[in-house]
Amino acid sequence: MNEKHKKKTSKFLSYVLRHHPELINLNLDENGWANVDELIAKSTNDSQGFTFEELDEIVETNDKKRFIFNEDKTRIRANQGHSIDINLALISQQPPEFLYHGTAQCNIDSILEKGIEKRSRQHVHLSQDKETANKVGMRHGKPIILTINTQKMFEDGIKFYLSENNVWLTDFVDAKYISQ
Question: What are the φ and ψ backbone dihedral angles of 25, each rounded to 5 degrees?
Answer without folding.
Answer: 60, 45
